[in-house]
Amino acid sequence: MKILLQLAFVCAICIAGNAVSSILPFAFPGSIIAMLLLFALFCLRLVKVEQLNPSGKWLQNNMAFFFLPANLMIIEELGLISQVWLQLLLISVVSTIVTFAVAAGAATLAAHIQSRLLHTAVPAGEGEDE
User: Phi and psi dihedrals of 2, rounded to 5?
Assistant: First the structure.
């Protein structure tokens, strides 16, 4: 019963986020507004994380359930996908490599900026195996 009440509270936050989104003069996702509302409630200490922890764990343990509709839509479009599977595979491989390269570059740049800001640049040759 406790989990149901917690889930009802989370659903109420989602509904409130969608309501706020519908009255805004510009397009903004209701789910993001709901997350911001929940974050505000946590920051104001009106809601404690411990109060929603059991339902959060339940949602986390059953997360695969929420991907079923998307997977069923993919299965329904299998005929279309079978026509372009090579292109999809190529796009997936290339985008994975690009994402990896950009993430590595961003991490390297962040480390470089951090070392310059802290004036603790690693001396040349240090850390290299000889």
Answer: -65, -40
- Cα three-residue angle 114-115-118, rounded to 5 degrees: 85
Q: What tokens were used for 90?
A: 């190529």
Task: Note if the pTM is more than 0.70.
Answer: no
Please tell me the predicted confidence (pLDDT) of residue 122. 55
- Report pLDDT digits (tens) over 16-68: 999 999 999 999 998 899 999 999 999 999 988 888 888 888 888 888 877 88
| Mean per-residue pLDDT over the chain, rounded | 87
Mean pLDDT of 96-121: 90
Instruction: List phi, psi (to 5°) of 25.
Output: -75, 0
Report the alpha-carbon distance of residue 37 to residue 47 in Å, rounded.
11
Q: Spell out a b/e string for 93-102, using b for 16 or more CB atoms within 10 Å of the CB, else e.
A: eeeeeeeeee
Does residue 39 contact residue 17 with C-beta atoms inside 8 Å?
A: no
With tokens 């149901």, the residue in question is 4
